[in-house]
Specification:
The protein is mostly helical. Helix content is 72%, strand content 2%. It is built from 12 helices and 2 strands. Helix 2 runs antiparallel to helix 5, helix 5 crosses helix 6 and helix 6 runs antiparallel to helix 10. It is elongated, with a radius of gyration of 19 Å.
Protein backbone atom coordinates (compact mmCIF):
# COMPACT_ATOMS: atom_id res chain seq x y z
CA UNK A 1 0.00 0.00 0.00
CA UNK A 2 2.96 2.35 0.48
CA UNK A 3 5.35 1.04 -2.18
CA UNK A 4 2.84 1.10 -5.05
CA UNK A 5 1.95 4.83 -4.86
CA UNK A 6 5.58 5.71 -4.21
CA UNK A 7 6.68 3.87 -7.36
CA UNK A 8 3.85 5.41 -9.39
CA UNK A 9 4.81 8.84 -8.12
CA UNK A 10 8.45 8.25 -9.03
CA UNK A 11 7.67 7.13 -12.58
CA UNK A 12 5.20 9.95 -13.32
CA UNK A 13 7.51 12.54 -11.77
CA UNK A 14 10.39 11.44 -13.98
CA UNK A 15 8.22 11.36 -17.11
CA UNK A 16 6.30 14.62 -16.63
CA UNK A 17 8.67 16.49 -14.35
CA UNK A 18 12.03 15.75 -15.99
CA UNK A 19 11.50 14.34 -19.48
CA UNK A 20 8.47 16.35 -20.61
CA UNK A 21 9.43 19.24 -18.29
CA UNK A 22 6.16 20.53 -16.90
CA UNK A 23 8.00 23.48 -15.37
CA UNK A 24 6.08 23.23 -12.09
CA UNK A 25 8.19 23.59 -8.92
CA UNK A 26 8.05 20.55 -6.57
CA UNK A 27 6.06 18.71 -9.24
CA UNK A 28 6.11 15.54 -7.13
CA UNK A 29 3.93 17.19 -4.47
CA UNK A 30 1.53 18.56 -7.08
CA UNK A 31 1.24 15.09 -8.59
CA UNK A 32 0.83 13.24 -5.31
CA UNK A 33 -1.77 15.70 -4.00
CA UNK A 34 -4.04 14.65 -6.86
CA UNK A 35 -3.06 10.98 -6.84
CA UNK A 36 -3.85 10.68 -3.14
CA UNK A 37 -7.56 11.33 -3.57
CA UNK A 38 -7.76 9.61 -6.95
CA UNK A 39 -6.19 6.37 -5.67
CA UNK A 40 -8.75 6.24 -2.88
CA UNK A 41 -11.64 6.76 -5.29
CA UNK A 42 -10.33 4.35 -7.92
CA UNK A 43 -9.41 1.59 -5.47
CA UNK A 44 -12.76 1.80 -3.69
CA UNK A 45 -14.96 1.78 -6.80
CA UNK A 46 -13.04 -1.01 -8.53
CA UNK A 47 -12.99 -3.22 -5.44
CA UNK A 48 -16.67 -2.62 -4.69
CA UNK A 49 -17.72 -3.48 -8.25
CA UNK A 50 -16.67 -7.11 -7.96
CA UNK A 51 -17.29 -7.63 -4.25
CA UNK A 52 -20.70 -9.37 -4.53
CA UNK A 53 -19.50 -11.83 -7.18
CA UNK A 54 -16.24 -12.46 -5.33
CA UNK A 55 -18.17 -13.29 -2.14
CA UNK A 56 -20.83 -15.41 -3.82
CA UNK A 57 -20.55 -18.17 -1.22
CA UNK A 58 -21.26 -15.77 1.63
CA UNK A 59 -24.08 -14.02 -0.20
CA UNK A 60 -25.88 -17.30 -0.94
CA UNK A 61 -25.55 -18.76 2.56
CA UNK A 62 -26.08 -15.84 4.94
CA UNK A 63 -28.87 -13.26 5.00
CA UNK A 64 -27.56 -9.76 5.64
CA UNK A 65 -27.65 -6.32 3.96
CA UNK A 66 -25.43 -6.95 0.94
CA UNK A 67 -24.65 -3.26 0.60
CA UNK A 68 -22.27 -3.73 3.52
CA UNK A 69 -19.86 -5.61 1.27
CA UNK A 70 -19.57 -2.68 -1.15
CA UNK A 71 -19.26 -0.18 1.68
CA UNK A 72 -16.56 -2.33 3.29
CA UNK A 73 -14.57 -2.11 0.05
CA UNK A 74 -14.70 1.68 0.27
CA UNK A 75 -13.57 1.44 3.89
CA UNK A 76 -10.67 -0.77 2.85
CA UNK A 77 -9.66 1.88 0.31
CA UNK A 78 -9.69 4.35 3.19
CA UNK A 79 -7.02 2.29 4.95
CA UNK A 80 -4.82 2.49 1.86
CA UNK A 81 -5.55 6.24 1.76
CA UNK A 82 -4.11 6.54 5.27
CA UNK A 83 -0.88 4.72 4.41
CA UNK A 84 -0.47 6.70 1.19
CA UNK A 85 -0.91 9.89 3.19
CA UNK A 86 2.12 8.83 5.23
CA UNK A 87 4.12 8.53 2.00
CA UNK A 88 2.99 12.04 1.03
CA UNK A 89 4.05 13.46 4.40
CA UNK A 90 7.49 11.88 3.97
CA UNK A 91 7.87 13.45 0.53
CA UNK A 92 6.78 16.85 1.85
CA UNK A 93 9.32 16.68 4.67
CA UNK A 94 12.10 15.69 2.28
CA UNK A 95 11.20 18.45 -0.20
CA UNK A 96 10.62 20.96 2.61
CA UNK A 97 7.11 21.96 1.64
CA UNK A 98 4.06 22.50 3.83
CA UNK A 99 0.30 22.51 3.23
CA UNK A 100 -1.91 25.59 3.49
CA UNK A 101 -2.61 25.27 7.20
CA UNK A 102 -5.03 28.21 7.18
CA UNK A 103 -7.22 26.37 4.65
CA UNK A 104 -6.87 22.84 6.01
CA UNK A 105 -10.66 22.74 6.50
CA UNK A 106 -10.94 22.34 2.72
CA UNK A 107 -9.42 18.88 3.08
CA UNK A 108 -12.55 17.19 4.56
CA UNK A 109 -14.73 19.38 2.33
CA UNK A 110 -13.28 17.51 -0.65
CA UNK A 111 -12.78 14.12 0.99
CA UNK A 112 -16.40 13.67 2.14
CA UNK A 113 -17.93 14.14 -1.35
CA UNK A 114 -15.34 11.71 -2.74
CA UNK A 115 -16.37 9.10 -0.17
CA UNK A 116 -20.07 9.52 -0.92
CA UNK A 117 -19.45 9.40 -4.69
CA UNK A 118 -17.30 6.27 -4.36
CA UNK A 119 -19.98 4.59 -2.24
CA UNK A 120 -22.70 5.49 -4.74
CA UNK A 121 -20.82 4.15 -7.75
CA UNK A 122 -19.51 1.13 -5.84
CA UNK A 123 -22.98 0.05 -4.70
CA UNK A 124 -24.50 0.60 -8.15
CA UNK A 125 -21.82 -1.27 -10.09
CA UNK A 126 -21.70 -4.08 -7.51
CA UNK A 127 -25.38 -4.82 -8.17
CA UNK A 128 -25.13 -4.51 -11.96
CA UNK A 129 -22.01 -6.71 -12.06
CA UNK A 130 -23.99 -9.66 -10.68
CA UNK A 131 -26.17 -9.66 -13.79
CA UNK A 132 -23.59 -8.43 -16.34
CA UNK A 133 -20.19 -9.80 -15.34
CA UNK A 134 -18.28 -7.71 -17.88
CA UNK A 135 -19.20 -4.62 -15.85
CA UNK A 136 -16.14 -5.18 -13.66
CA UNK A 137 -13.79 -5.11 -16.64
CA UNK A 138 -15.55 -2.10 -18.17
CA UNK A 139 -15.28 -0.15 -14.91
CA UNK A 140 -11.56 -0.94 -14.75
CA UNK A 141 -11.02 0.54 -18.19
CA UNK A 142 -13.23 3.58 -17.67
CA UNK A 143 -12.04 4.47 -14.17
CA UNK A 144 -8.37 3.47 -14.24
CA UNK A 145 -7.72 4.78 -17.76
CA UNK A 146 -10.22 7.20 -19.29
CA UNK A 147 -11.46 8.92 -16.12
CA UNK A 148 -7.96 9.30 -14.70
CA UNK A 149 -6.75 11.36 -17.68
CA UNK A 150 -9.88 13.48 -17.50
CA UNK A 151 -8.74 14.78 -14.10
CA UNK A 152 -6.02 17.46 -13.62
CA UNK A 153 -3.57 15.15 -11.85
CA UNK A 154 -0.50 14.89 -14.09
CA UNK A 155 -1.24 18.25 -15.70
CA UNK A 156 -2.33 21.62 -14.36
CA UNK A 157 -5.80 22.91 -15.13
CA UNK A 158 -4.62 26.51 -14.92
CA UNK A 159 -1.53 26.05 -17.10
CA UNK A 160 -2.43 23.49 -19.76
CA UNK A 161 -6.22 23.22 -19.87
CA UNK A 162 -7.94 26.47 -18.90
CA UNK A 163 -6.78 28.57 -21.90
CA UNK A 164 -7.96 25.94 -24.40
CA UNK A 165 -11.29 25.42 -22.67
CA UNK A 166 -12.01 29.14 -22.45
CA UNK A 167 -11.20 29.60 -26.14
CA UNK A 168 -13.77 26.95 -27.08
CA UNK A 169 -16.28 27.77 -24.29
CA UNK A 170 -15.94 24.24 -22.86
CA UNK A 171 -14.97 25.00 -19.26
CA UNK A 172 -18.32 23.64 -18.08
CA UNK A 173 -17.58 20.30 -19.74
CA UNK A 174 -14.31 19.86 -17.84
CA UNK A 175 -16.01 20.57 -14.52
CA UNK A 176 -18.85 18.19 -15.32
CA UNK A 177 -16.35 15.61 -14.06
CA UNK A 178 -17.20 15.49 -10.34
CA UNK A 179 -13.67 14.49 -9.35
CA UNK A 180 -12.12 17.60 -10.92
CA UNK A 181 -13.04 20.16 -8.21
CA UNK A 182 -12.29 17.64 -5.45
CA UNK A 183 -8.79 16.94 -6.77
CA UNK A 184 -8.14 20.63 -7.33
CA UNK A 185 -9.15 21.27 -3.71
CA UNK A 186 -6.59 18.73 -2.52
CA UNK A 187 -3.98 20.46 -4.68
CA UNK A 188 -4.92 23.83 -3.21
CA UNK A 189 -4.41 22.58 0.34
CA UNK A 190 -1.44 20.25 -0.12
CA UNK A 191 0.52 21.82 -3.00
CA UNK A 192 -0.17 25.29 -1.61
CA UNK A 193 0.84 27.46 -4.57
CA UNK A 194 -1.93 30.09 -4.85
CA UNK A 195 0.24 32.76 -6.49
CA UNK A 196 2.71 32.96 -9.36
CA UNK A 197 5.97 31.03 -8.99
CA UNK A 198 9.10 30.75 -11.15
CA UNK A 199 9.06 27.83 -13.57
CA UNK A 200 11.75 25.17 -13.18
CA UNK A 201 12.12 25.03 -16.97
CA UNK A 202 14.31 27.64 -18.72
CA UNK A 203 13.92 30.59 -19.11
CA UNK A 204 12.10 30.32 -15.74
CA UNK A 205 9.06 32.53 -16.40
CA UNK A 206 6.50 33.22 -13.70
CA UNK A 207 3.62 30.74 -13.95
CA UNK A 208 0.25 30.34 -12.23
CA UNK A 209 0.06 26.64 -11.33
CA UNK A 210 -3.28 26.76 -9.48
CA UNK A 211 -6.33 28.96 -10.12
CA UNK A 212 -6.38 32.13 -7.97
CA UNK A 213 -9.72 31.19 -6.48
CA UNK A 214 -10.88 31.95 -2.97
CA UNK A 215 -11.56 29.23 -0.41
CA UNK A 216 -15.27 29.99 -0.77
CA UNK A 217 -15.14 29.01 -4.45
CA UNK A 218 -13.63 25.64 -3.59
CA UNK A 219 -16.23 25.09 -0.87
CA UNK A 220 -19.05 25.95 -3.26
CA UNK A 221 -17.72 23.56 -5.94
CA UNK A 222 -17.25 20.75 -3.43
CA UNK A 223 -20.75 21.35 -2.07
CA UNK A 224 -22.25 20.94 -5.55
CA UNK A 225 -20.40 17.63 -5.95
CA UNK A 226 -21.61 16.49 -2.52
CA UNK A 227 -25.23 17.27 -3.43
CA UNK A 228 -24.94 15.36 -6.71
CA UNK A 229 -23.19 12.46 -4.96
CA UNK A 230 -26.00 12.19 -2.39
CA UNK A 231 -28.56 11.97 -5.18
CA UNK A 232 -26.50 9.28 -6.91
CA UNK A 233 -26.17 7.41 -3.62
CA UNK A 234 -29.94 7.37 -3.19
CA UNK A 235 -30.42 6.11 -6.76
CA UNK A 236 -27.74 3.45 -6.23
CA UNK A 237 -29.45 2.20 -3.06
CA UNK A 238 -32.80 1.97 -4.86
CA UNK A 239 -31.28 0.04 -7.76
CA UNK A 240 -29.34 -2.23 -5.42
CA UNK A 241 -32.47 -2.96 -3.38
CA UNK A 242 -34.44 -3.96 -6.45
CA UNK A 243 -31.69 -6.19 -7.84
CA UNK A 244 -30.55 -7.79 -4.58
CA UNK A 245 -33.54 -10.13 -4.36
CA UNK A 246 -32.21 -12.36 -7.16
CA UNK A 247 -28.51 -12.26 -6.25
CA UNK A 248 -28.52 -15.86 -4.96
CA UNK A 249 -30.09 -17.21 -8.18
CA UNK A 250 -27.74 -15.24 -10.43
CA UNK A 251 -24.65 -16.27 -8.47
Amino acid sequence: SMASPALTLLVLTIVFGSILKSGMPTFAIFLFSGLLLWNFFQTGVMAATGVIVNNAGLVKKVSFPREILALASIGSAGVFFFFQSIVLVIFMVVLRTSPAWSEIYLFPAALIPAIVLACALGIFFAAVNVYMRDTQHLVTVLVAAAWFWGCPIVYSYQLQVAPILRAHHLTWLFFANPMTPLIMTFQRVIYNRPGTVPSTAPPHPLIQVLPPWSATTYLWADGVVLAAALVLFYVAMVVFGRLAGNFAEEL
